Amino acid sequence: MKYKAKNALLEVVGLLLFATLRADASTTVTLNGSACPVDAVITRDVCVIGGGASGTYAAIRLSDLGKSVVVVEQQDRLGGHTQTYTDPVTGGHIDYGVEDWHNLPVVLDFFARLNVSLVTQSNSVYGTSQYYDFSTGKSVPGYSAGDPTPGLTAYAAQLAANYSYLEEGFGGIPYPVPSDLLLPFGEFVIKYSLQSVVSLIFSVSQGLGNLLAQPTLYVFKSFGLGIIQGFEEGYLTTAANDNSLLYEHAYAELEPNVLLNSTILLVNRSSPNEANVLVSNPSGQTLLKCGKLVFAIPPKLNNLEGWDLSLSELSLFGQFTNSAYYTAIVRNSGLPSNITFVNVSPNTIYQIPKLPGIYEISPTGITGLLNVKFGSSQTLPDSEVQQQILSTIANLQVAGKTPGVPSLAVYSSHAPFELAVSPSAIAAGFYKELYALQGQRNTYYTGAAFHTQDSSLLWQFTEALLPSITDS
Ligand SMILES: Cc1cc2nc3c(=O)[nH]c(=O)nc-3n(C[C@H](O)[C@H](O)[C@H](O)COP(=O)(O)OP(=O)(O)OC[C@H]3O[C@@H](n4cnc5c(N)ncnc54)[C@H](O)[C@@H]3O)c2cc1C
Asked: Best substitution site from 61, 75, 98 to test ligand 1's pocket, by max atoms within 8 Å of Cβ?
């Protein structure tokens, strides 16, 4: 209620702001009784909010289709979860966010368009795996992940026979929703004897939070047919071992139509033909007059301050909960640089560890630097995650470990990560209503909450959305 009241107030303030703008189309507007400078006005066919995987793709494709665009991004770079660390000593690159893509036409076309070369990914950098209980620091002798094949085969058969529409998004879900999609994944595993594939899914679908408690729908979305196909065909990565190149090239093309380090102050979509967005960035306040909006940011209410949310948007976005995913590159760990340390628990079902905690610590190809992936079923303070990462590594009792005090070369929070709603909301038609927002109030929605945490599939999803943006 509090948020609703605040938004209603913002809407009134927004109307005042834009009414004043029309009256005085110069450099100052009155916002809630205070003079509010507007340093620039930019008019574009489409304003893209969020310059991560989906937003960058939308911006490049829409400009290729002849639309004028501007991208609003809160970070100092494009790329979202794609992050690359450049080691100051060796000059080598480590992709510690997005690592790879599917071998799909949309991927090949996008990389060719931005002149970035791809190769088939090799997993040789990860070395051999050793299994430790990270909660005690001790090795788990005799642990074996086992052969996932029987479970994987049965899981893939379920997907192929009944749920292949999930590869395209949530739009194909039939109603009533199949009850298996609503089962906690742990129950689905037992129902179909999928036990042998659980640890594989846990390690591939990192970031999902409590895997066994997630509705099966979200596990299918995350670990779908395309992912399974990729095990056979291989995944693609950049030949330069620098995945940020894609977004650097996109930035070079889109600039000066990218507003980095930008905060959205106000969004007003009350006009039938235009959306107005007031943005603050280091060069001042800019008013964007947009024919259409592409919404490509996480739709959590605390990320939408200043938006004139409709009652439907408020109700739908307000239902999302999220898991959290964190990454770091650690130096001075004392651990060997050619072994992946995997967190397993001798005391849990399927021996998957309890979160919050580290999934694994893996080699990076650069001696002395290790890649850490950490998960939680909810957002945690960064200081707590960092402390847990460092203390867990310090506590690992690995034979031959050299003494030293580990430190973070770089750390990144990817929270909120997976956005999910309750099984009852899914059954009640949440995704039907979510998709019904498309095009309303000149706003077109893309991004992981509307499909899945997978850049390649999000580019496909965004591509399919383009005709409705360009045609209307
Ligand atoms: C560690 C990690 C590894 C991954 N590995 C892979 C992989 O190997 N392959 C793969 O396909 N996918 C991978 N993913 C998933 C992939 O990153 C996501 O599916 C994809 O980035 C989601 O795209 P998006 O456009 O929804 O969000 P993002 O790429 O996160 O983009 C959202 C953008 O919006 C910006 N933003 C957010 N809020 C605001 C705001 N209020 N105002 C302005 N800007 C805002 C953000 O800064 C960000 O740049 C990985 C994710 C993580 C975290």
From this structure: 98
- Asked whether residue 403 falls in the same domain as residue 428, the answer is no
C-beta of 72 in contact with ligand 1 (< 6 A): yes
- 53 Cα: distance to centroid of ligand 1 (angstroms): 6
> What is the average pLDDT across 166-189?
98
- In this structure, the answer to whether residues 167 and 250 fall within a common structural domain is no
Q: Which residues contact 141 (CB under 8 A, 6 or more apart)?
A: none
* Ligand 1, pocket-test mutation among 267, 360, 453, most atoms within 8 A of CB: 453
CA-nearest residue for atom 31, ligand 1, is 52
User: How many C-beta atoms lie closer than 10 Å to residue 168's C-beta?
Assistant: 13
> How far from 36 is each of 17, 30, 265, CA to CA, in Å?
9, 6, 11
| Distance (Å) from CA 80 to ligand 1 centroid | 4
Whether residue 367 is found in the same domain as residue 438:
no
121 Cβ below 6 A of ligand 1: no
User: Domains in the chain: how many in total?
Assistant: 3
Domain check: are 54 and 96 in the same one? no
Last residue of a domain, one of 413, 432, 453: 413
Same domain, 327 and 315: no
Among residues 254, 206, 272, the alpha carbon closest in space to that of 79 is found at 254
pLDDT tens digits for range 397-437 = 999 999 889 999 999 999 999 999 999 999 999 999 999 99
Phi, psi of 281 (to 5 degrees): -145, 180
pLDDT in tens, 228-245: 999 999 999 999 999 999
- Its domain, for residue 214, covers 149-234
| Residue after which a domain boundary falls, among 216, 234, 252 | 234
Classify residue 116: in a domain, yes or no: no
Cβ of 461 less than 6 Å from ligand 1: no
